[in-house]
């Protein structure tokens, strides 16, 4: 890792610890948007990390994006999710959209004045995207969308929604919907176990008419476009999981150093030291695999697909395990909301589920092993 990356990590960590962490418990408790941390991220130009300078972003490389997500997630996983979903929501516009569409969508999102979301899941469609039922039908040069998207992060806060919709028997397109478009409405906020500061709701499309400019490139190749972006979004979710694990680990090290039992700090007990050592190994091995995957993605190496699936799997499984052990190391205090580890344990769970469940990651990895 370069000196620039290390310095960047230190600056995001400082920002997260001073401006984001102090609000994380309240955001979780009240299930409210993390407005203080979003303001802090915006005033430090972080929402534009994934966007090119020509569109108002800072054009940072993927490793920098991963580092930013890790550091923000270590303090508040919900805030990290809001930021990275903005990047996912604009990813197909950036890679495949027309210049007109890019100009319409990206500068606002890069500055943080607008939000983005991406919409694949439906009430009856999760892991199997080929079964998507939302339709997009052409009418003259316009397209008309009908359907319902479920569990959409950043909804209804976001302005722009990248919607995957069926355009033929075996084809899908990506369509960019604005929250104020006619025919767009939102479901009630989901009441979640974790990530309670990240808004999640259904997006309902009822005869939503879009002009041709809102279609991402070829409306029959959307699945291909989304699949190409999944490597990056999975790396970012892996980074989020890794950040949660690091946050929980740091909290556990601090607590066990300061808590005395039997006349000495509990960090002196060998059983606990063994747990902490195992947690450290889980974090460092997950980080190494993730950075390896990031380098393959940055190099355009086809091996990236399986490697990032491994990284998403390991980072999220290890985050769940590390957060659970961090809670255990706090004893009864880990179980109450005065300490952050119970929130981190709840937040960690979803990283094993979204952006392709860990069962789906295992299928992808096995496919690369057998070649079919
Ligand atoms: C908080 C939250 C935020 C989310 N954000 C977004 C978002 O922004 N955009 C979006 O589009 N979606 C989002 N999702 C949806 C998420 O990506 C899906 O929940 C996830 O992909 C799994 O789909 P599903 O829930 O329908 O589960 P299902 O696909 O029904 O799976 C149920 C179980 O069956 C297993 N399973 C399914 N198929 C197989 C198989 N072939 N082999 C073995 N096991 C299998 C799964 O691993 C899982 O354990 C979000 C979900 C949540 C809870």
Automatic annotation (TrEMBL):
It comes from the Bacteria. Pfam families: Acyl-CoA_dh_1, Acyl-CoA_dh_M, Acyl-CoA_dh_N. Residues 118-208 form the Acyl-CoA oxidase/dehydrogenase middle domain. This is Acyl-CoA dehydrogenase. Keywords: FAD, Flavoprotein, Oxidoreductase. Belongs to the acyl-CoA dehydrogenase family. GO terms for molecular function: acyl-CoA dehydrogenase activity; flavin adenine dinucleotide binding. The keyword Magnesium does not apply. Its cofactor is FAD. The keyword Flavoprotein applies. Residues 221-369 form the Acyl-CoA dehydrogenase/oxidase C-terminal domain. Transmembrane segments: none annotated.
């Amino acid at each position: 890792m370069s000196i620039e990356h290390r310095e960047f990590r230190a600056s995001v960590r400082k920002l997260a610890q001073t401006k984001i962490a102090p609000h994380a418990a309240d955001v979780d408790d009240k299930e409210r948007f993390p407005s203080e941390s979003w303001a802090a991220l915006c005033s430090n130009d972080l929402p534009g990390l994934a966007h090119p300078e020509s569109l108002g972003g800072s054009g940072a490389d993927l490793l920098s994006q991963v580092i930013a997500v890790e550091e923000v997630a270590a303090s508040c996983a919900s805030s990290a999710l809001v930021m990275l979903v903005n990047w996912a929501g604009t990813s197909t516009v950036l890679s495949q959209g027309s210049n007109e569409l890019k100009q319409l969508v990206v500068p606002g999102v890069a500055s943080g004045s607008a939000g983005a979301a991406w919409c694949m899941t439906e009430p009856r469609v999760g892991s199997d995207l080929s079964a998507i039922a939302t339709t997009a039908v052409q009418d003259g040069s316009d397209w008309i969308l009908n359907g319902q998207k479920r569990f959409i992060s950043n909804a209804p806060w976001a302005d722009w929604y990248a919607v995957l919709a069926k355009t033929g028997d075996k084809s899908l397109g990506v369509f960019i919907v604005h929250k104020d478009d006619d025919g767009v409405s939102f479901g009630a906020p989901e009441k979640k176990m974790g990530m309670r500061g990240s808004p999640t709701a259904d997006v309902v499309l009822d005869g939503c008419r879009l002009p041709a400019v809102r279609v991402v490139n070829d409306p029959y190749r959307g699945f291909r476009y989304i699949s190409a972006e999944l490597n990056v979004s999975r790396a970012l979710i892996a980074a989020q999981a890794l950040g949660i694990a690091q946050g929980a680990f740091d909290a556990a090290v601090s607590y066990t150093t300061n808590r005395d039992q039997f006349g000495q700090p509990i960090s002196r007990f060998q059983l606990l030291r063994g747990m902490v050592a195992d947690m450290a190994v889980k974090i460092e091995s997950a980080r190494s695999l993730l950075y390896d995957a990031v380098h393959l993605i940055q190099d355009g190496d086809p091996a990236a697909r399986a490697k990032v699936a491994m990284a998403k799997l390991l980072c999220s499984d290890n985050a769940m395990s590390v957060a659970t052990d961090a809670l255990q190391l706090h004893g009864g205090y880990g179980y109450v909301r005065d300490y952050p580890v119970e929130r981190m344990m709840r937040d960690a769970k979803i990283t094993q589920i979204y952006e392709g469940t860990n069962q789906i990651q295992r299928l992808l990895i096995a496919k690369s092993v057998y070649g079919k």
